[in-house]
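Reopening this one. Same input as before:
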Amino acid sequence: MEVSSAVLLPVEAEGFARSLEQMAFRDIGSPGWLKQHEYIEKLNIQAILNASANEDEFVKEYLSTYKKISVLIHDLISVEIWKLKIFPVLCQLQDFKPKSTFPIYMVEACESADEIILDLIDYCQRKLMFLATQSDNCETQREDRMLMKDLSDAVSLQELKKQSELLEFDISLKSLTILRYITDHIDSLPLSALTRLLNIHNLPCLLVQLVEHSPWSKYKEGQLQKYSDGRWHTVTSEDRLKMTKLDGQVWIALYNLLLRTECQQKYDINSFTKNQLLKLRRFLTEVLIDQLPNLVELQKFLSHLSVVEPPPPKKELILQQIPEIWDQIHKENFGKWKAIAKYQVKQAFNPSEEDLRQQALRWAETYNLDVMESLIPEKPKCGYCGAEGSKRCSRCQTEWYCGRQCQVQHWQKHKQACNLMADAMKKLKEELNIQP
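Same output, byte for byte:
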């Protein structure tokens, strides 16, 4: 399954990066906003391919050179506020009968910062708080990210709300990676960012809660399942103690926040914080440390903490910076939420048939099946025997096989799903006037 890593040439990536601009809040979901997110998604795919192949990461370089990181973070915060303030209003409007749900699904999918790193830290804290408050019975944890019963359900408000909850869970898990990345670069953060991480939000204690409750794990019908790549996967008995990527992100972030010299000098460890941190000791087993050896240093730190009183943090005068983006958007649009929702009903959710067709074609090009599969680290598996797949069903293009014999053996079981997928693809191509 060899796929070219050139989704974008460097000159194309540079043009896309330079064209990114901060958009007005009311324009979320507009044609211009959707077009910009096509560019962002292509840049994202190319960046992943470059990083995976250890190639020149020119996308990251262009975003930094042209100072577009702030644009991406502004968009991230804008989307979060839109979901909190506009989407609930849209669902209550009687005239909200969208011809297209492209804007809503794109809003859900969107996730050198300088001073706006504070906004990004606050964003991560809100998402991790969402994870920490999830209960075992939460509906969000019971289904896969993009699971749909049928196509007709996808346009109902109930289904949109359901997808919003599922995606919020998935996005919140991704914020763990962002936070871990921030903690990897503590030495380059401004002092106010460090204070915000440790003493205002007390993120180490929040991470302890995630270790305790592990919202990415659950039991279903007596079997342990763990969440990965947008889906719940049943864990075999031999893999029960295996550390997942999400577990690793939490432990690395804790390691950075508790053991880095800069953090130890700033972190105010009082009696409550001490008791919370010591809860980690029962999770630091030999099996876990064998998988992430650096955690032995964290184990020593906690053992020392248990028998001594931590020294008070250094008292220094710090001019505390305030997050700008969240407050700015709120201030500019306060009291206008319903007016913005009504504006978007007319402007973003009532495109012409031709506009819908063109939008679908552009997104089909962006999410090219071969390119998307190249982003998946695991090789496809044969649908019959489970061996590495080398050929795909030519009719539905979804099932893989290691050879002709397995495909023939699997046909009776695959036939119904294959017919459904093939008919759906044929109907879609007819509606979009795509030539075979």
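So the earlier flakiness isn't reproducible anymore. For the record, The radius of gyration is 24 Å.
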